[in-house]
Amino acid sequence: MIDMTLQIIDDFNIIIQTLYILLFIVLIFFGQRIQFHLSLMEVGGVLRHLAFLKDTAIKMTIDELKKYSTDKDLNKRFERLLNSFMIMPEAADPSGIVKKIEHIVNIREARFLDDLKRLITSEIEESKVRNLSNMVEATMALNIIYKIIQHYYLLAKKTKNFFIMAQLQMIVPLIFNEAKSYLQALNAFKLGTPIGDSIGPLIVHKFIQHSDTKTIEYKKEYVKDTDVYVVERNGRIFYVIKASGPGGNVGKPGEAIKKVINSLKKKNEKIAGIIMIDAALKLEGEKTGEVAEGVGAAIGGIGVEKFKIEEIATKNKVPLYAIIIKQSLMEAITTIKKEIADTISDAINRVDRISNEELPEGNIILAGIGNTIGVP
Amino acid sequence: MISNLILQFNSFELLILFAIALVFFFILLTDIKKQGKRMMLINPEIKVQLICKECGFKEIRDFREGDYISKEPDEKCEKCGGEKYIDIIYSIVKQEKTRQS
Ligand SMILES: [Zn+2]
């Protein structure tokens, strides 16, 4: 009896050992292939989630458009809008490229808005059209993200390329977070609430509305989509620039600053400096709603407006001051968080301090940079 | 006696193996759960703070479509009946204690 048990245990041990060795051999020769299939499964899962996010976004946008449109070809027209693209100018000869980029971007914006307006059949406010266009743009971003990830996924699968798949696997969690942000952004655009990026326009709006500030002049649509307020505060004149709200819109602050400086120069008036307020991406670990000061043109986007501001400031030797409010990408494109909104008075105090202590005599230009959705 | 010892030892070893396998299984399970949570979308609560122009009384209510900063909705102050304006709009995200999105 005992002998037999011992025999069985011996056999069992031999089997286990053989399995161990076999496992090593399999892992040595097929390890990478197994890894590849595991990656394929993981990336495939994320891709399905991305498709879900994209489809949800498309459905949300079409549902919202349907509220204002009786167009029978709505789906078709929307699809055309969704798949529209913009080709950047050739950069091999970079002189004067910003002008070309600006031209292309302007055409794209105008055409995009016109297409959208043609789609809408009922009478609605301009601000609502802007919010709808923001919705379509967020959907476009999601669509592009999905298409690109799908492209690399299928490419890696087709060529059985482990290294494309490994890179994809490393990057998809980050991409997925970004995609999630865009879907959440859609909700904010639909409702028309201010977003984290609206903090710049929001601060300058509160600056104008402040009890110590006296509005002297209000120039609506000073340049396209951008308003200028001439105000007096603590005995100093401010030219306050912000995009026209409350629709979702970033305006043309660069163009506005250029025009203000040129008109002031014509009148032989002094320009003390430019203060720009903008949302900035925080690093992981940094606190949301941290306010920081620095110098330079605090403005994101494609670079046209930044170029203009830097050019006109350099030409006229006007100092450029920047105040930034830190937040993550998710926070920047979704409804403004309390921590971010709470920075308003701090930022206004900083503007006061800079204008009272640092800037010489003359007019001050204050620009609130960002999407002015929900802020008139 | 000796064989019993071997038998015991073997089952003990197996038990450890099982325990290790179980631990790995649970790690995998929580990982999948975490991933599921990461995939979830949280709809934030959007609040509006209104201030009375007359007496400065503050009131917080839920966001309604069409609200924007400095808008004067058709709502009267509860204290003095004065007109109100929207001071600020913000969202509150119920966040978990440790994990960041
Ligand atoms: Zn009151």
Outline the structure in words.
The complex is a heterodimer of chains A (376) and B (101). Chain A has helices at residues 2-66, 74-82, 97-119, 126-159, 162-191, 199-209, 253-266, 304-315, 329-333, 338-341, 344-358, and strands at residues 213-223, 226-233, 236-243, 271-281, 291-295, 320-327, 363-368. By secondary structure, chain A is α/β, with parallel strands linked by helices. The longest helix of chain A has 65 residues, at 2-66. The termini of chain A are far apart. Chain B has two domains: 2-38; 45-92, Rubrerythrin, domain 2 (Single Sheet), CATH 2.20.28. Chain B contains one helix and three strands; from the N terminus they run αβββ. Chain B has a three-stranded antiparallel beta sheet, with no helix packed on it. The chains are: A alpha/beta (376), B alpha+beta (101). The interface between A and B is medium-sized, with 33 and 25 residues. The structure holds zinc ion.
Topology diagram in text:
The complex is a heterodimer of chains A (376) and B (101).
Chain A: H1 2-66, H2 74-82, H3 97-119, H4 126-159, H5 162-191, H6 199-209, E1 213-223, E2 226-233, E3 236-243, H7 253-266, E4 271-281, E5 291-295, H8 304-315, E6 320-327, H9 329-333, H10 338-341, H11 344-358, E7 363-368
Parallel strand pairs in A: 3-7, 4-6, 4-7
Antiparallel strand pairs in A: 1-2, 2-3, 5-6
Chain B: H1 2-39, E1 45-52, E2 58-62, E3 84-92
Antiparallel strand pairs in B: 1-2, 1-3
Zinc ion (ZN) binds at residues 52, 54-55, 57, 77, 79-80, 82 of chain B.
